[in-house]
Design goal:
4-stranded antiparallel beta sheet, mainly beta, 0% helix, WD40_rpt, repeat, Neuraminidase
Length: 106
Amino acid sequence: MAIAPGGRTPAAVTMLGSVELFDLDGVRTGRFGLDDEMTGAAFSPDGAWLATTAVNGCLRVWDTATGECATVIVVDGALRDCAWFPDGSGLCAVGKPGLFGFTFHR
């Protein structure tokens, strides 16, 4: 579960391989995903990107406006969660294989 900056867009990851965006009335406003069991999600500080982690070792960054996957990084082992750097320049992911830090260029 993640909440976009401003608190108006919650995102929920599912065990079915998707992330779903909602409005404050609980109406789904977006859905995207490709992975098996997603385990974590984090919005970038500006809300333009949503990072997700999955059991299959994928860290994906999604464009929240289009639902397109902007990038994917695969590590050897399950990932559990992720968090953006406060300035949005990168993110960390953590899981069975360890802690990883990545830069993100738009």
